Amino acid sequence: MNQPFHSNSPQGVTQGTAPSAGGGLPISSTLRILMGFGFCAVGLVKGVLILTGESAGGIGVFLDGLGFFLLAGTGVTMLMDRFYSLYLLLLWAALGIVGSFVGQGELSVQLPALFARIMVGLVALVSIGQRGIRTPG
């Protein structure tokens, strides 16, 4: 007893409008695009400046440079609307936190950057947690 599929059935309507299970970021597309371009620009510029700079080398400088290239990669994944960009952003924050403890610089310079990366990490964690709570439909 097969019945033909009707587009005016409730299932047909909800299936067409429900977000996909592998959906992107839980933010508006305009904000996502602006953040993606911003992360790309800042990540590339800061990454190149840190790694080619005249500052003393060390693991802290390497982690900072690597972290900013990771931030540029996060921007690219945001432009592609991939959810795993939040995991990359969380990894960038973690690298920055570790790098600030390993690096040897002035505390007045490191403290605001450390606070900012902790806040970015918390925002990424909350956004990842919200995805598990969100129900399609």
Layout of SSEs?
Layout: H1 10-17, H2 29-52, H3 59-79, H4 85-102, H5 107-133
Helix pairs in contact: 2-3, 3-4, 4-5
Report on the architecture of this protein:
The longest helix has 27 residues, at 107-133. This protein is mostly helical and 137 residues long. Helix 3 runs antiparallel to helix 4 and helix 4 (85-102) packs antiparallel against helix 5. The protein has 5 helices and no strands. The radius of gyration is 20 Å and the shape is globular. It has helices at 10-17, 29-52, 59-79, 85-102, 107-133.
Q: How many helices? A: 5
Shape: globular
* Radius of gyration (Å): 20 Å
Main sheet makeup: none
**Structural class of the secondary structure composition?**
mainly alpha
What is the average of the pLDDT values? 75
**Run of helices and strands:** HHHHH
Strand content: under 5%
Flag low-confidence runs. Answer: 5-21
Helix content: over 70%
First and last CA, distance: 28 Å
Number of E-type strands? 0
